[in-house]
Amino acid sequence: MSTMKAAVVRSFTDDLDVTEIEVPTPGPYEALVRVEYSGVCHTDLHAAHGDWPVKPTPPFVPGHEGAGTVVAIGDRVTRVAEGDRVGNAWLWSACGECEYCETGWETLCPNQRNGGYAVDGSFGQYMLVDSRYCPIIPDGVSMAAVAPILCAGVTVYKGLKRTDTKPGDWVLVSGVGGLGHIAVQYAIAMGRRVAAVDVDESKLALARKHGAEVTVNASMSDDPAAELQGLTGGGVHGALVTAVNGHAFPQAVGALRRGGTVSLVGLPPESFPLDIFTTVLFGLTVRGSIVGTRKDMAEAIDFFVRGKIDPTYTVRPLDDINAIFAEMQAGRIDGRVVMDMS
Ligand code: 8ID
Ligand code: ZN
């Protein structure tokens, strides 16, 4: 039996256990990947804390922004070969046969399995991927820099598409963390004008660095929605909420222009009141958006390969995972943390 170092969640209340565990064996359609880098997503923190109604079952290894190289393949694998550069993803696999898979909505497949949640993820030196669903990483790109694209990138790219905006329109990015700072960049690359909201000045500075024209600090403003309405000449055409705080959600709805659409992406385990009168009279759309399909992933990676997206990230060792989670919880991370698995 060969072993590897991995960060294991043993309970929702304890620190992760960085320890030696068995290297998994690839089954049919699966490939074994030597992980080089893995981004740390706030979803991993929600998973480790058991924040959501559908909880993962400890012990498990989080991580769904892993980038590495295929070192072995199981039976019936045709899409990848040993030596190929691939990643894992939140959409680890789907059934391929249900009404959602059949209609281009595999992200809604009720039989999907999620990386770092139902299947062990990328917070370890090796991981399994489903060869039919894993993102393919082109040659020549930095494995550390591409890691945040595999969840943060695809999620905000899809969420921005779902705002139903067009070039020249205003888009609000609420929450400029790992997802949000990349959302600013996709929005600019897609020709949108960006307004950004956060509760931390350094996050707003990062948003401006990446092209946001308007920034509002929600912790300093009496009415961030009204301020955004004024600064964008009548409201934003679309909004993407990545904030991990329920208060940001009605603020984003309140910042919409008439006819606007908000894509909800952040997942604080909370709810928020939706004002029926303004939603109806102003013809607003409020929708959820969850990661992206394999096609969205390939498109998101292509923006990155063409140099349109430049994630801000810090490389740290896997041994730092508990400190990284504590900093994330306190909102002290600029951009993304990417862990080096070597
Ligand atoms: O597919 C999806 N829907 C998807 C995919 C990936 C991640 C959803 N997520 C979810 C995560 O589970 C998490 O709930 O998106 C959320 C954001 O993930 P992240 O970007 O990885 O988290 P972060 O780096 O900690 O950034 C959070 C940002 O929110 C700001 C913080 O300052 C930070 O910049 N924020 C907070 I906390 N309160 C805010 C507020 N009231 C706020 N920004 C604006 N207003
Ligand atoms: Zn994620």
TrEMBL record:
InterPro entries recorded: ADH-like_C, ADH-like_N, ADH_Zn_CS, ER, GroES-like_sf, NAD(P)-bd_dom_sf
Cofactors (names): Zn(2+)
Start and end residues of each Enoyl reductase (ER) domain: 11-339
Major enzyme class: oxidoreductase
Catalytic activity: a secondary alcohol + NAD(+) = a ketone + NADH + H(+); a primary alcohol + NAD(+) = an aldehyde + NADH + H(+)
NCBIfam families reported for this sequence: PRK09422.1
Family statement drawn from the similarity comment of this UniProt entry: Belongs to the zinc-containing alcohol dehydrogenase family.
Name of the protein in question: Alcohol dehydrogenase
Species of provenance: Cellulomonas composti
